[in-house]
Specification:
Blueprint (H helix, E strand, L loop, with lengths): L2 H8 L5 H24 L2 H18 L9 H23 L4 H12 L9 H11 L3 H12 L4 H8 L3 H18 L4
Helix pairs in contact: 1-2, 2-3, 2-4, 3-4, 4-8, 5-6, 7-9
């Protein structure tokens, strides 16, 4: 079912549940993994993914199709993830460095990574990036999105995204000591 068909079905009272179920089938797994790369822990990603789709359901009738449905959902997921990280840091009064260390230590136990040492080092390096660079890097490198899509998700100019991605790549190379 296309996004337009899902939206049309959702906008009929009788079709809301069916349309939302189709939307979940189409986007839930991909959205979960996007969130999971940002938050690392399954429990956190699962909660934020659920919150994301609650917001999607509540606001889907207001979706104005200025962007793709996919990028709109990813924008909500990204914002929910970043808000979750801010709340978690504030709640535990952790400096960002300590929180990154906590997440880094969880990576070896995580099913997010298959245990490959290089991939674990990459993920640890990604966690050291500022949040915006981490989001841009994940969307470009792992999701293989183009800068226009990332711009729609983050609300950042394409030039700014290119700079953020370049800085992220440079920092990652330094973190994992790649020439």
């Amino acid at each position: 079912m296309t996004d337009t068909e899902i939206l049309n079905l959702f906008n009929t009272e009788a079709g809301q549940n069916s349309a939302f179920n189709r939307l979940l089938e189409k986007y839930q797994e991909r959205t979960y993994w996007h969130i999971r790369k940002l938050l690392v822990l399954h429990e956190d990603a699962d909660d934020v993914c659920q919150d994301t789709f609650v917001k999607v359901f509540k606001n889907l009738s207001k979706f104005n199709e200025d962007s793709n449905l996919f990028t709109w959902i990813y924008r909500i997921a990204t914002n929910e993830s970043l808000n979750f990280l801010k709340k978690k840091k504030t709640k535990f009064l952790l400096p960002i460095y300590d929180y990154e260390n906590e997440l880094s230590s969880k990576l070896s136990e995580s099913d997010l990574i298959d245990g490959d040492k290089v991939e674990i080092e990459l993920q640890k390096a990604i966690l050291k990036l500022p949040e915006k660079q981490r989001v841009v890097f994940n969307l470009k490198y792992f999701e293989n999105l183009d800068y226009k899509q990332i711009s729609e998700i983050t609300g950042t100019s394409i030039g700014g995204l290119k700079a953020s991605y370049h800085h992220a790549v440079s920092k990652i190379k330094i973190y994992i000591d790649v020439d």
